[in-house]
Structure formats: C-alpha cells, structure tokens
Automatic annotation (TrEMBL):
UniProt key word Transferase: yes
Organism whose genome encodes this protein: Streptococcus pneumoniae
GO function terms (MF aspect): transaminase activity
Keywords for this protein: Aminotransferase, Transferase
Cofactor section: pyridoxal 5'-phosphate
Listed PANTHER family: CYSTEINE DESULFURASE ISCS 2-RELATED (PTHR11601:SF50), CYSTEINE DESULFURYLASE FAMILY MEMBER (PTHR11601)
Protein's UniProt keywords contain Transferase: yes
Domain Aminotransferase class V: 1-90
The organism's place on the tree of life at top rank: Bacteria
Protein's name in the database: Aminotransferase class V-fold PLP-dependent enzyme
Amino acid sequence: DEIFFTSGGTEGDNWLIKGVAFEKAQFGKHIIVSAIEHPAVKESALWLKSQGFEVDFAPVDKKGLVDVEALAGLIRPDTILVSIMAVTNE
C-alpha cells in the first residue's frame, strides 16, 4: 500500500485518470466518464482520446443523476475505467 500526495484535486484527477489508462491499456482502451465530470477529469479523458483511447460520456438527467441504464449500455469488454462524480459543488 502506498499514499501519494498531490498539490490538489486537479493534479490528482489528471494523475489518476491518465495513470490508470496507461497502466490498464493492455486490457483495453475504452474509458467512460459522466457528462458532468470536473473539467480535470473531462480534459484528461479528451487528452487520452487524442492518444488513441476511446472515450464515451455517460448521460445525466436534469438533476445531474447518471442514467444507469445508459451507463450499463456503454460498458464493453475493453472498458478499463468508469469515472462518475459522486457529488458536485456546482
């Protein structure tokens, strides 16, 4: 077990999303993030798309809740990461 410290949430999001993607790329290159993710997550996912990963955005309803059925339909055998924000301050 290890603990890593970052300068803040944005750096942590970038590090985690990109790190997991490259670490798990041997199993697939498909990533799902919710349509209302923090910009650090969304921009990291879009950067990964420019690097050859496939990115899908899980839709949300008017209250910001993820459409679970739509999310389930996006998951594939080559999906290596699903990032869904639990709480937003916006």
